[in-house]
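Sample intake — asparagine synthase (glutamine-hydrolyzing)
Collected from: Secundilactobacillus odoratitofui DSM 19909 = JCM 15043
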Amino acid sequence: MCGFVGYVNQSDVPSDTIVKMANRIRHRGPDDEAYFSDEKATMGFRRLSIIDLAHGKQPMYNNDQTKVLTFNGEIYNYQEIREELKGLGYEFKTDVDSEVLIHGYDAWGPDLLQRLRGMFAFVIYDSKTGEVFGARDHFGIKPLYYYDDGNTFLWASEIKAFLEHPNFKKEFNEDLLAIHLSFEFIPSKDTMFKNVFKLMPGHYFLHRADGHTETHEYYKFSYDNIDENQTIEGDAKKIRKIVDESVDAHMIADVEVGSFLSSGIDSSYVLNEAAKLKPIQSFSLGFNDSKYSELSWSTEFAKEIKQQNTPLTMTGDDYFDILPTIMYYMDEPLSNPSAMQLYYLSKGTRQKVKVALSGEGADEFFGGYNTYLEAKPFETYQKYVPGFVRKGLAKAVVNLPRFHGRRFLVRGAQPLSERYYRVNYVFDYHDRERILKHPELNRDAGEYTKHIFDDVKGKDEMTQMQYFDINTWLPYDILHKADRMSMCNSLEVRTPLVDKEVAKFAATMPIKTRIRGTETKVSLRTAALSELPERVAKKEKLGFPSPIASWIKEDKYRKRIEEAFTSDVAQKFFNTDALLEILQEHINGKSSMQKIFTIYTFILWYQVFFPEETSADTISKVKRTDIDKIPVAN
């Protein structure tokens, strides 16, 4: 696991720029560093050694030294590809997966991507053609960004590396503020920095010598092969085999591998399968308040399967003190409250191991979110009640005081692309009108992501929901925070359930093997019943609970939020009176935690990345263990 940076050369760039860029992300690779430069391009690399510790230095070259590779991730089937390349006459000097990529690209070009199974982001520079090729894994487990303003082309594992390049123009992308407030992330290639783009999951870019950049899709998850003949028992049997094989593949390492463990089925199942292969340490996070802590569950389960568990805890001060630091490492504002827990979990885990398994992806691929259960009632309602009646009922009740069924009637008049709660996850259109200082910035969030629903037009609503989550929530929230919170602690996190082969099978599952009555991911639970205690296999999903909603009501934390809500940044973008009203609503018992947290984290992020535009002292609160300075204006 590593981090890399690079750029197409320009005459006015100092020679030490590449080192400064790489140092910005040295938390991703504290074990080693190396650089490459010729008259056309410059590349930098930071390594976290996992496989073949003595070799595998990057940048890495092909046999005739004309192509140069920097790579972040793991290729789990690299040994198979290695043998295929040997048959073509390629000679290998190491036992690292990186060498498979450089020779594979030399042999097959972009078609190499069809052969790969793993989590990866890599860039290859071709000195003969002057072209730069970059690729990202199927589901976006590993990050890759590029900056392209028509004159300057840069790439890196994290956006913050760009801050060290003299021709990077740091500009806030204000046009996307409303989208962020809706989703808590940006569900597209765009970012909160102008001209900085994510390379999308399942895509590659080619930057040509003439300065033109093009992107291509090489993989797209699809529900085109759903098999209605499949049964719960049959799918459970297949899941057991697939998960067992995937965990085995994800255990490849020359260092000790550990595992995250909550009280839920996903991480428990992964840990249980890993423990069949070798003894494995697990790590769990909780709070002193048992109402929010899962430590007793996870500790008991680890004991049952005779594995060591390390319980970790955090306090409210830990939570709020680390927030500015989290926003720095996150690159873009992300208001998922569980990110802070994940930071401390990763920090504690890294003290014992260098690699950890995690259970992300099970809910998206196997149907684990409770919101999927509402698909059938809405489909029935919309099938049997004419549209004009549904619209009339919605109009009649929308302004009435809350009563049971009111929300259903209002949402029942909307298409799924507008109704699905992930679309206006935090603030809806009217909420944004209320808080935005410049309402003209408000945008239709449903329209912004409607094309994703259009991809699965004609499918049942639950399938559409899952497809949407796999293409937005999973890469931009779940996997994003997993990568940033682990890698800022120099920990590699692997996700056996976010896997090419697991997804291939999940795409064939009919609704009846995903949910049954009020039971979610029923086939996965059935598979787990033969491996785990029933109390674990059937446990209700809790997510990653925290006392954040209660902490906000405590004076010392509420005052921090009030200060932010009346700060110069708040006044620049928001109606501060509306922000304070939302905070008071929460104090009075009307839960607005996610709204409060989204605004609060955005303000902290802006103060960290645009300090020249703020008078706040947030920067002094950032706890930096491996960076020399916080971002400055260019």
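Post-analysis note: Residues 258 and 356 are 4 Å apart (CA to CA).
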